[in-house]
Amino acid sequence: MEKCRATVLIKVLIFCLILLPLGSAVHAARIRIIDTTAKHAPNWGQAALRDSAPAGSYLTLGKNSDISVIKIRPAQSSSPATRRRLNVSKEITSRSAIIVNVETGRAIFAKSADTPRQPASTIKILTGLIAIKSLSNNEQVKVSRHAARMPRSKVYLDRGKSYRAGDLINAVLLSSANDASVALAEKIAGSEAKFTKMMNLRAKLWGAKDTVCRSATGLTRRGQHTTARDLATIFRHAVRDKEFVRRMGTVRIRTSFGELLRNHNRALWRVKGAVAGKTGYTAAARQTYVGLFTRGDESIIVAIMGSETMWSDIKDLVEYGFKQEKREQLAEQSPGSRKSKIAMLN
Known about the structure:
The structure is a single chain. The protein is of the alpha+beta class. It has one domain (80-342): Beta-lactamase (3-Layer(aba) Sandwich), CATH 3.40.710.10. It has helices at residues 2-39, 44-51, 80-91, 124-134, 145-148, 165-173, 178-189, 192-205, 228-238, 242-248, 267-270, 310-333, 338-345; strands at residues 58-61, 70-73, 96-101, 107-111, 140-142, 162-164, 252-254, 260-262, 274-282, 286-295, 298-307. The strands form four sheets. A five-stranded antiparallel beta sheet has the order 4-3-11-10-9, sandwiched between helices. Strands 1-2 form a two-stranded antiparallel sheet. A two-stranded antiparallel sheet has the order 5-6. A hairpin with a 5-residue loop joins strand 7 (252-254) and strand 8. The protein is elongated and about 145 Å long.
């Protein structure tokens, strides 16, 4: 019996001797794990970076769950509509631009559309429209010295001579004649300064709150300015007048005094759907433009200011505007759209 007990004790002793090194190893391993964890404690500065990360970005752990390595992945790419809009903004040289739906007045595209700038001759749309509303076609307009001395563009009216109002209106809207603009302004209001008050009032009544006219011509004046949005707003109201649109859509016409007037708006024969428009240029304003374009049942107005490549800018914006309108129509007609559901209910 005692021999059996001795045998058991010997076996237990041997077993303990075998386990002792393993326990030490486990203990050492635990110490190393604790040390390693301490060395790689979270970096609170990076945690702060994570908390202040821009919207749309997200954080992930590095390899082997090493929490000291934190990477910020870039935000998701922008939507196709946003990318198209950004591409157009980069392609055009215009400092300000806007595309407006004629029916609703909604802006389809805008780039610095509310930045005040010199309008150049685009402001003559107000001069021409007020003249259409104020004078009969055959009414005689006498040319003053001030009007005759206006710089180009002009039709070289003779001082003291009288001309038909209809001819001078065409000279303003088609050939951007400065002498004709001032002659009409003086006939209607008595002086160019008084006429600009009429222009400003008309602009304000139409909601063009950032427009200030200091001349009937658009020639650079201190304190004179408008915005791309205001130009589009003014033109959107102006094109409701059928005579205004008819005159502006004329490519060339001869006056009763034999002068051939050519329309400066090359978009009429260069851009599909062009209906009417007014160009402008001064050194201060650079190239400016506002015009109406129609394709099918859709009509848009494009206004640009401060351009260096006016005609290519206009073409790019017109194409973008109609494509965007088409996309929105298709979206509204899709089965899941609100308008589609309303139509189905009706």
